[in-house]
Structure formats: structure tokens, C-alpha cells
Amino acid sequence: MNTENALLSLEKKCTPLPDWETAKQYIRPFLISADKMNKSVSLLNDEYLSSYITNRIKMFMVLSYGECIIPLREELLKQWDVNFADIRLAMEDSMTSLMPLTQLEEHNKNGFVYFTVHHPQSILNSVMPFYKPFQYFMHKELGETYYMAIPEQRTAVLFSKQFLPEYSSTLRNDILLTFDCSSQFLSPELIEVSDAGVLAVMD
Fold first, then answer.
1. What is the pTM of this model?
2. Cα(201)–Cα(108) distance, integer angstroms
3. Which residues in 161-184 are b (16+ Cβ under 10 Å) and which e?
4. Beta bridge mates, 160
């Protein structure tokens, strides 16, 4: 199912909704391009639990259950009789259980060493790099400051600071091509990850 269509279908294909004890196992972050979001009146609605993580990427809290991806909003929380803290804790627990399934694949392009993220649920390839425990692990592998690009929902590229000077000449065009050609594009940004958080340093 196309992820944008799934996101916009809301509850229509997901009735009846699972009860909270079932649903809490399937609370996930979900990333969508701000460019796509701005074309959707539905997703501009402030009632959804969402926030920008860069200027080009917005994160929604969703119920990813079966074939359904439902963006969470206050109405659903009331239906489950839970609050935002409950949702946040459920999302953390869910991501904690999913992280061990994540794998990194090393690549070398003309001496430029980078890693791609691979998860059995490929939609999580773009989500996992924004998960704090994953970032802590990558700091050990790539250093206190490293960089990543998330051109589409199923592609995440990470590399250490030492390769930053070669990024524009070696890898940037590949990132832009992936972004331009994907139906599930996210962002062409280059994102710096440090103890201070994440910051887009190139659009």
C-alpha cells in the first residue's frame, strides 16, 4: 500500500480499531515530506500528534496496525482513554523492541565510506536514525558528530565527520537522484547529528 494513501485513509480501512492493550504495541513514528504534507489539507490539521524534525521532514505518531497507518489525534486518545504520556511511552517501548532488528550495511564509493540502514519493516529505515538510542549507538561507531541523509522513506545514509569535505563531490548527487526519483521522497537535506541534537546543514 502506498504509504501516503495509507496515512490519509485514516480509520476508513481500519475498523474496528484495536483496543489500547493491542494498539500500544503498534505505536510508531512516521515521517512524511513537508513538501507532500503541504499539498494535503488533511495533514495540515493541528489536531494530529506531529512535529517538525527538520524544515523538510515532519514526524507523526501513528498506529501501524496490519495494512493500516493511522495518524493519531486527540479523538483517538479519548477513545482509548489514554493521554499523550501514554502514547509517548508506548512509542518508546515499540521502538526499543524494533531496534535490535536494525542492520547497517557498509559501502565504499571512491574511498568515501558510508552506511545504509536496513530494517525488516523497511519504512523504519528512515525512522530509526532519529531514535535517540540508535543515535547513541552511531556516536560510538561514527564519532561525536556524524552526518546523515534521508532522501526517501526507505533510505537512510550515514557517515562520519571525516568524510564531510567529500560529500558534495562524491555522494550528494546520488542522494538528490534518490530524492527526485522516489514516490516516497522525504528530504534532500544533509543532517548533522551531535550531542546537541539533529540539525539540517545543507538543503
1. 0.88
2. 23
3. eebbeebeebbeeebeebbeeeeb
4. 146
